[in-house]
Amino acid sequence: MTVNDDSFTDWKNREEIAESMIPIIGKLHRERDVTILLHSRSLVNKSVVSILKTHRFARQIAGEELSVTETLPFLRALTELDLGPSQIDIGMLAATYRADGRGLSVAEFTARAVAGATGANKIECREGRDVVLYGFGRIGRLVARLLIEKAGSGNGLRLRAVVVRRGGERAADDLVKRASLLRRDSIHGQFQGTITVDEANSTIIANGNEIKVIYASDPSEVDYTAYGIKDAILIDNTGKWRDREGLSQHLRPGIDKVVLTAPGKGDVPNIVHGVNHDMIKPDERILSCASCTTNAIVPPLKAMADEYGVLRGHVETVHSFTNDQNLLDNYHKADRRGRSAPLNMVITETGAASAVAKALPDLKAPITGSSIRVPVPDVSIAILSLRLGREATREEVLDHLREVSLTSPLRRQIDFTSAPDAVSNDFIGSRHASIIDAGATKVDGDSAILYLWYDNEFGYSCQVIRVVQHVSGVEYPTYPAVAV
User: Quick check: is 284 in a domain?
Assistant: First the structure.
């Protein structure tokens, strides 16, 4: 096999440039609470190869590949600015500069594009906000990983404690087993960092973050102030309580707000970040992040409704199996979920369609829904069939959704792939709520069918974190804005 010397030399050169980017990205994150993004994908704590792959991926969504040789000058320019806590997308900076540099130097252009993060306008670093996890299952552990990753300089969200029930006969090694589940995950891989256990103090130390493990069988048993926790946001990952009365039990000493990682019932606000998070009242103490499927369908539904209008719709969810199903046939309170999850497709219900009205109250179109659980452990797909308010072509719809994924306020929620061979495993670890599959999209006049992939574990957990950041006051602005 012949090696292309030019191609290999170019690769080695790009590797060297990516290596030089890592300490700059890390220092900005640790010292200034600045998260460097590339087309909405974080570059913090990423390897050389990961940084290069993220640049390559820009070809799929932006139509042309970005090179590290293009983005490095913008990263260096950022180090010369007096930045406050923020998220800065060097992919958007480079792409916009390429299209319309306006005769400015990279340094001048960068300073103008991120002006809101500098000088008198910048957000000052503030004291961190305590967070408590109630429950430590699939979502709880992924949220914990994200909180630890986002610790930055320590001025953002601080995971202080996890509340769990002691594991009965496993009590002697309960803490060790829970730490091991955080350290290794069969789907999402190894925890990026170090984890140690202090059994004497019932504490897990992850990347220097001390996380107290509190054993309790009921919210009323815990006084969080006894652990030095104050004004905290509690994230309930159990789903045991979904109405205001039940969730109010968490409002104990030391807890200021409660966020549920399941659809809320009654008057509990169901929040889809990017769509209706700005409607949360400052004095609201209890809210829900809705479901993973609701988070997957609502952002693209809004994008379509805003541009074309939507008269009616139906969503069919092909969903990976979850822990509330049985591995083998056994009794279950639901009619079909008792049948073996790894061996069957299981028809079940979804509340995602009815939840749309809570997140998009201005959308009057009726939306129906149904769901099938299938034998894969993670990543689902929602097939959203819409009757539009006007006719459109497939090319128009795809161009619109691609632009939404790149430059709109929904760019953290909606991703876009044109990969012709995309399958579910490709989206494990996606931080977006929904990924548009361009190849599968169908449009015929006023009828449109969108295929929306979503990591129902990790992508949803990222949405939860965004809501928590918003209500805690540490959701930092992203630069450049939609238009530079």
Answer: no
Number of domains forming the structure of the chain: 3
- As given in the structure block, the two tokens for residue 317 are 């969810």
Q: How far apart are CA 402 and CA 450, in angstroms?
A: 13
* Gap between the Cα atoms of 236 and 222, Å rounded: 14
Q: What are the pLDDT digits (tens) for 215-258?
A: 999 999 999 999 999 999 999 999 899 999 999 999 999 999 99
CATH number for position 307: 3.30.360.10
Pick from 267, 287, 264: nearest CA to 277: 287
Whether the predicted pLDDT of 59 surpasses 70: no
Which residue range(s) make up the domain with 29?
A: 5-121
Residue 482 covered by a domain: no
Residue 421, number of CB atoms within 10 A of its CB: 6
What pLDDT was estimated at residue 438? Answer: 96
Q: What is the pTM of this model?
A: 0.91
Q: Is 125 annotated as catalytic?
A: no
For residues 304 and 432, membership in a common domain is answered with: yes
Is the same domain home to 213 and 329?
no
- CA 30 from centroid of its chain's CA atoms: 21
In 367-481, the DSSP E strands lie at: 367-374, 380-392, 414-417, 434-437, 442-454, 478-479
Out of 125, 289, 292, 462, which one is annotated catalytic? 292
- Among 121, 140, 163, give the residue marking a domain's end: 121
Q: 1: burial class by Cβ within 10 Å (0-12, 13-18, 19+)?
A: exposed
Q: Is residue 463 part of a domain?
A: no
For residues 9 and 91, state if they share a domain: yes
CB neighbour class for 168 (10 Å; exposed up to 12, middle 13-18, buried from 19): exposed
Closest CA to 310 of 349, 233, 368: 368
pLDDT above 90 covers what percent of the chain? Answer: 73
Alpha helices, DSSP H, located in 268-382:
292-308, 352-359
Residue 253 falls within a domain, yes or no? yes
Backbone angles phi, psi at 131, to 5 degrees: -130, 140
